[in-house]
Amino acid sequence: MYIGQKDKFPVKGSALHSVLHSVPDCQSIIKKAVVERLKERYHIEWFEETGALYQIQFTIMKDHVQILLDTSGAGLHKRGYRKNANAAPIRETLAAGMVDLARVHADSLLVDPFCGSGTIAIEAGLKALNIAPGLFRKFTCEDWALLPKNTFKQLREEAMDVIKKDAPFKAYAYDIDPAALELTKENAKKAHIAGRIHVAQRDVKDFKPDAERQITVCNPPYGERLLEVKEAERIYKTMGEVFHPGDGQTFFAITPHERFESLFGRKADKKRKLYNGMIKCNYYMYFR
Ligand SMILES: C[S@@+](CC[C@H](N)C(=O)[O-])C[C@H]1O[C@@H](n2cnc3c(N)ncnc32)[C@H](O)[C@@H]1O
How far apart are CA 28 and CA 30, in angstroms? Predict the structure, then answer.
């Protein structure tokens, strides 16, 4: 039996293209069934639900039912270092994928000229230094009695042992907005890599390379209303003037703007379709 007699066991889920289509009804039927089973097991009538959380999750898809226990809690893209205070932050997992495609290694120098909350620079640092992405977050199942007490402590120690502390990786995170820079500093500190990320205010129009070989990865503004779109287009043109991919400089940008390449002034060496939340974007890659 996974659930102890004092544990919490809320139920949530979804139903799609199925005879059982009422989610609230399915929720209460599952809850009742679990209660009945626990009554049999513990010989009590009332469950106080004050202990560890066992979130029961069901999915009903084309009449196929799955019932699961959520071991993680917050979504796995949440690494535990980020406050969601700035506008338009990119998901940590998307940033990690972008950094991967940009071939960031232990000795890379990475630049993000539109750093916002610092996600790209931080994910690059985690990858370069081989820091396990969930190292500094909590998982719900850490409170579960069925897991040996030391499991997570041991796993964290193992993850700490493989961190490449001597890796020369460095990142430069720039933004025009001082509030974004403060956020990047705070988040980098929480991710334990503040020492690797140099943060400074800079308008992209004043961009200059920090080294002969560097990887620039960015998530520039997209703009939603007409005026903002015009502003984003102006920024893409400026980017074309200041970034010169080639000769050791590689460049990567994600945007949903269909005319990015013509505004930037160069055709990408490769494009990848990626979703930023619900927004269909292209990841423009310049590496030749
Ligand atoms: C889409 S957000 C980046 C979000 C970031 N990737 C994150 O995860 O938080 C775009 C950022 O570009 C910055 N920005 C806008 N215009 C800029 C400019 N001219 N120069 C530098 N940064 C600018 C904004 O302040 C904003 O933080």
Answer: 5
- DSSP secondary structure letter of residue 213: S
Q: List pocket residues of ligand 1, CB cut-off 6 Å.
A: 86, 88-90, 113-114, 116-117, 119-120, 175-177, 180, 203-204, 219-221, 235
Domains in the chain and their CATH numbers? 11-70 (no CATH), 92-136+164-286 (3.40.50.150)
Q: What is the pTM of this model?
A: 0.92
Closest ligand 1 atom, CA of 88? 1
Question: Residue whose CA is closest, atom 13 of ligand 1?
Answer: 114
For ligand 1, the distance from its centroid to the CA atom of residue 213, given in whole angstroms, is 23
List of the chain residues with pLDDT < 50 = none
Q: Which atom of ligand 1 is nearest to the CA of 231?
A: 16
Strands 170-175 and 197-201: parallel
The percentage of residues in the chain with a pLDDT greater than 90, rounded to a whole number, is: 92
Residue 30's nearest CA partner among 52, 60, 53, 6 is: 60
Within 8 A by CB and 6+ apart from 225, the residues are none
